[in-house]
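ESCALATION

Customer reports they have been waiting on this structure for their group meeting. Please prioritize. Original submission:
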Amino acid sequence: MNQTIDKVKKDLSHLEIITDPNQITKLSLDYYHFSPILHKQLQDKRGDIVIRPTTEEEVIQVAQTCVKYKVPITVRGAGTGNYGQCIPLEGGVILDMTKMNQILWLEQGVACVEPGVKMAAFDKLAKQTGWELRMAPSTYRSATIGGFIGGGSVGMGSITYGQLRDRGNLQALRVVTLEDEPCLIELRGDEVQKVNHAYGTNGIITQLEIPLAPAYPWAEIIVIFDDFMQAARFGQGLGESDGIVKKLITVHATSICRYLHQLKDYLPENKHAALVMVSEYDLEAFRDLVHEYNGKISYFKTAEEASHRTSLLEYTWNHTTLHARSIDPSITYLQTFYFTLDKVEHFYDHFGDEVMIHLEFIKFQGKVIPAGLQLFHFTTEERVNEIIRYHEEKGAGIANPHTYLLEGGGRKTIDSPQLNFKKEVDPYSLMNPGKMMIQNNV
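Update from on-call: job pushed to the front of the queue and completed.
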């Protein structure tokens, strides 16, 4: 491989190429270490070089060269994912897309961007026109739009707009293929699903056309409760209150709250908490809902006040796992679709504090449902599998965060359109090899 990489470097010497081992290590990894299972499998995986293109033409040149020498290529954004999506299993070229960061156009309700545009930076500009991103992960400040489309699925905003894969949440994209003669392909409408959440296995995204949401002044609020299920019912009730515009509904059991040290003044001992983002225009109705569920507001910031502080978003979704692991590195997590509050209550009672419940309410097939990013102390891989199996036997859906296989997470099945598209645009299987079940004879 070394001689082949030398040829790649020579052919692409006019581009920015990183060869420093420390930088290569940094740019070969993501937050896979949230899972001790993935950490064991991926800790020694590295690319051979990193290339940072700035234009579509440069991406095509990289693609041509990698095809010429049959060198694997792994695309990455900011590397804020947790599943090893952008970790190269077979070395080769790491294609760092963060310098392709132009907002190409921004109109009423839609924008066209390059993949390296950071989400928070985009929103800052878009809000000046009255619009914002529909959804974003808890790594919003550093995550790129292309990385989120390639490796994400839900986040802040999913209580209104559902999942990234829901029809309409991605309008169009352009990708560079890895054929003998790489070319640009534009996919629109339902065809975007060939590349959406495909871990960069099906083409190199160079442009995205994304629909936007009306921008609201989002108040950030913590509501505390004496009883966990009452907090969960409040979350469900808020999600189903169609007249209250909201962006985030997170519910933490008290066992989770103890890891959120920065919020300790607002999370009294033995209280359960809902962390929410609600339109300032709907606060009167929101307060009535809090009263109905016997909650108490312990933290309130207007949108203006919240803009000068760390957002509550960074104590939700997988940032909760990050905070907990900073205190106790033995903690890992699950990703669960509970579907109903009855299932939430069953698992809460069954596991107790072994599996600490953290809920995120989302829109799923038109209905508000509780999803979970539960925390637990890792003991053995066998125990992880037992916990997953019990959830699935009782009707919950597990998006397994302890596998790097594309289909091994939430879908559990081969995505035929994605697989067929890969055969078409990547005939030599050079794009992020090893991340699809079919490639591993699974």
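Sent to customer with the following note: The chain has three domains: 2-96, 103-214, 218-398.
Escalation resolved.
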